[in-house]
Amino acid sequence: MMRLKLATKLGLLLFALLSLLYLLLVAVLYVSFSRSLAAQVAEDLLHRGHGHAEVLGRRWGEEALHHVAEMERQTGLIAAVVDRTGTVLAQSDPLAPEQVRYLKVDARAAVHREGVVVTRNWRTEPYIVTWSPVFRHGEWVATVVLFEPTEPLRRDLAAFKWASCVAFAFMTVLSLALTAVLSKRLTEPLREMTAVTSAIAEGDYSQRVDVRGSDEIACLAASINRMADSLQAYRAQQSAFLADVSHELRTPLTYIQGYSEALKKGYGDEAQRRAMAETIHREASRLTRLLQDLFALVRMEEPSFQLHREPVNLGQTVEAVVARMAPAFQDKGIALTVEAAGEPLWVDGDAARLEQVWINLLDNARRHTPAGGRVTVRLFREAGEAVVEVRDTGEGIPPEELPRIWERLYRVEKSRSRTHGGAGLGLAIVKRIVELHGGRVGAESECGKGATFIVRLPLRPA
Questions:
Q1: Considering only Cβ atoms within 10 Å of each terminal Cβ, which end of the chain, N or C, has fewer?
Q2: What does the entry list under GO cellular component (predicted)?
Q3: Which DSSP string corresponds to 156-177?
């Protein structure tokens, strides 16, 4: 089955609507014109007949009768004057048989002094006929009968219909041309969008739709461009993410494979073999943490992921994590302190996920703070939000790197992350958890002066 193009459908629809409107207009005009024309002819006949009747009423006689007949003979109308019995007293022309039956005037003629229209059906009757009564000294003595042929009226209306058909043909050509132009202008952007979206579907994310105007089609084109921008950015992020994951996996796997082969072949003495085994264990643990973090981040980025929300005392979750991680800070010689808020800070959140935020931030601070340094956790209320700051005295972050530290697998310096054992996922997990809670993250730093990581969460309504 052949499928019609959108332009063809629109053109046919527009043509059908225009044709319907035109036909309705012609029908209304035809009915109105035919009625008004027939009414005008009947009114003119009544007026002429009434004029003759008044003259005959004042000047009754052979001369007046002859005068009426002669006047109508010159106009082309057919006139007859009959008495009350139907006897013809005067006539402008010989009467045809179909006219004689109208000479039997009944009492209707006397009732309507202005005259009466006997028939006005121009479609089926050959004449429009009127009766105009003649009164003399208050007595009805005769009737003026006028005949107007309906053939000229039918010719006029036939000419009107012919002109309407010609106009319809002209309108058809014009409307088809107009619909072709309009349909092309309307569907050309749609064809362009089809080509662009097909290219995007095949992986060419550089294609864009030319946005013209501000109508609905322009809005659709802008939406397609925004979608292409998002897909292009997502594709770039995905490629970078896969490259980073490959790199992160390749390094520990290289260590594990190399040292395991060395152990298998019995290289080195006991101390060397123990060192190789420790390296394998360390890299395997690092690989496990990396995969766990990746799995957790992927889960949290799924639309179906749900937090287990409940009223949470933010200070208690921070203090619990600080108590749990204090030994690791002591082992490295780092002072860890908490500046609690003067009041409980309650939020609607997932306690376990929020604890993961504090663990990641504190672990990040511990790894980047040298022995003898200090890490401070500060809680306070500000502008209807609960704020948690984690400040360290580590090496700091270059200002130009701050906007990117929350990206997945992003490392300020690859050697720095390798030295400190980070994989670049901890801060990305922090950002995702905080955003799921409707909060915001931020960071401030100067190279050599440490860094401050800030978490803002909406307070629970009182």
A1: N
A2: plasma membrane
A3: HHHHHHHHHHHHHHHHHHHHHH
